[in-house]
């Protein structure tokens, strides 16, 4: 009886592991842009994502020092400007970014 339970448990775990990978890939594919992963330069170069940045952080896209931040992510910039780039602001940016179609 115990052996059957172990075999059934092992089978269930192996089936779950097999299903988890496609789910993770699908979630990653659905989020074309993110505050934690996409560099600011990429966000500035796309008119749609640039508008989202300007909506949530007014003046960011026209700041004379923005070019220095191009290789960084919004999450990285948060360490320098925690009030302006709070977790709440980044979550709102991510929510709007998630509505956009995938990057080409």
From TrEMBL:
Keywords carried by this UniProt record: Signal
Leader peptide range in chain numbering: 1-20
Annotated protein name in UniProt: Uncharacterized protein
Source organism of this protein record: Sphingomonas cavernae
